[in-house]
Design brief:
169 residues; alpha+beta; two-stranded antiparallel sheet; two-stranded parallel ribbon; 44% helix
């Protein structure tokens, strides 16, 4: 569907920061027009003009995240853990927030559930980048710290089930 809608490539690879502050390639289905990341890293709202028609639905139902199962297979990510961030924002972490980099990043986490509508929140902001840096990112990092303190099989299972339910809703 991606090829029919907007051509090649089908996959998008982005450098993200993982465990021990090491960069890795995050796999996703491409949902934006080619070279759109040069126009900014944050996606603003459901009607971001960089997002392709099929990309809108892939994002809405989180299907664009499925290729990250390859990251899990390659050992750079786990199913549950703090979402990996791009270096541009990681350099802004405080010493306490850098604790997030001590665990393997994941496909879903508490922050993914709490901020499932992050794009819409940013769309309402007069300065989305500053809203992300000063409001959303610290809140997400706080939720990631909560995960690190309480991680375990039952917590991971609860996060996975809640993620599936939120996507279905």
């Amino acid at each position: 569907m991606i090829i029919i809608n907007s051509g090649f490539p089908v996959f998008y690879f982005q450098n993200r920061v993982g465990r021990n502050n090491k960069d890795f390639k995050l796999f996703k289905f491409r949902t934006m027009r080619n070279n759109s990341d040069t126009k900014g890293l944050l996606t603003i709202g459901g009607k971001d003009p960089r997002v392709t028609a099929i990309g809108y639905y892939l994002r809405k139902y989180k299907i664009d995240e499925l290729p990250q199962l390859f990251n899990v297979l390659f050992g750079t990510m786990s199913l549950v853990g703090p979402r990996p961030e791009v270096r541009k924002y990681v350099v802004l972490y405080t010493k306490e927030q850098q604790l997030i980099l001590s665990v393997k990043p994941g496909i879903t986490d508490f922050a993914s559930l709490e901020y499932i509508n992050e794009n819409e929140l940013l769309a309402k902001s007069s300065d989305p980048e500053q809203t992300y840096i000063n409001v959303i990112m610290p809140a997400k990092l706080g939720l990631n710290a909560k995960y690190i303190q309480h991680q375990g099989f039952s917590v991971d299972l609860r996060i996975i089930c809640n993620t599936i339910l939120k996507i279905i809703k």
